Every structure is written in structure tokens, then in C-alpha cells.
């Protein structure tokens, strides 16, 4: 099960890099659709700044997941991915409660499944 959890950890890293791309570089129409936000709101400069700021955090998280494969080995690697996965679950739960319910499915659930498999 840990091997599957490790694979999912890598996929979580890729997922967060994709989310970062959407937040930082996608057109406002794509952002509004992806994040269930009003297009007029997303086009505002303050909303764009906030999305880009959030994007850099998701990019850093994605890179950390991927760096975990080369920075750590054995048990330390599993613990590192458990901590990052727990972080994803907490942030996903908060985002699902405050932004859009879609985040529960896209972020919190994959993080929880990964965390569970890493503990087994």
C-alpha cells in the first residue's frame, strides 16, 4: 500500500503544479470556470493578484512533493509525504468550506487517500 501511496504523492505534486498554473497563468475565463468564481470578479486586478499569490504556494507544494523523491529515502520519505499529504487535506477542507465544494473532491480527497495509503 505504501508504494501506491508514494505514486499518489507524486501525482499530488503534479496536481498542485497544474493548480498553480491555473491560478497564475490561465485566462480569467478558465480560472472562473475552474474555481467556480464569477468572471467579473476574477477579472479584477485584486482577484488576479490573490490568485497568483495562491498559485505560488501551490507551485511550492507541488515542487516539494516532487523533490521528496530525490531528497529523502526510505522511512524519511514516507514521513515527509505523510506530512505534506496532511497539509493538503487540511487546506483542501478549508478551501472546500470557504471557496467551492469542488475542492473537497479535487484536493482534500486525493490528499486523504494518499495519507491513508502511506500509513498502511
From TrEMBL:
Work out whether the entry's keyword set contains Nucleotide-binding: no
- Name the Pfam families on file: DUF1304
Which keywords accompany this UniProt record? Answer: Membrane, Transmembrane, Transmembrane helix
TM spans (from-to): 56-72, 79-97
Keyword match Nucleotide-binding: no
> Could you tell me what this protein is called?
Epimerase
Amino acid at each position: 500500500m505504501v508504494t501506491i501511496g508514494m505514486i499518489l504523492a507524486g501525482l499530488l505534486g503534479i496536481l498542485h503544479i497544474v493548480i498553480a498554473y491555473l491560478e497564475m497563468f490561465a485566462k480569467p475565463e478558465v480560472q472562473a470556470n475552474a474555481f467556480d468564481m464569477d468572471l467579473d470578479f476574477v477579472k479584477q486586478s485584486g482577484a488576479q493578484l490573490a490568485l497568483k499569490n495562491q498559485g505560488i504556494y501551490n507551485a511550492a507544494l507541488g515542487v516539494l512533493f516532487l523533490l521528496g523523491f530525490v531528497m529523502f529515502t526510505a522511512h524519511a520519505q514516507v514521513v515527509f509525504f505523510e506530512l505534506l499529504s496532511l497539509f493538503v487535506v487540511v487546506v483542501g477542507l478549508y478551501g472546500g468550506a470557504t471557496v467551492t465544494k469542488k475542492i473537497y473532491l479535487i484536493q482534500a480527497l486525493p490528499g486523504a487517500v494518499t495519507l491513508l495509503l502511506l500509513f498502511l
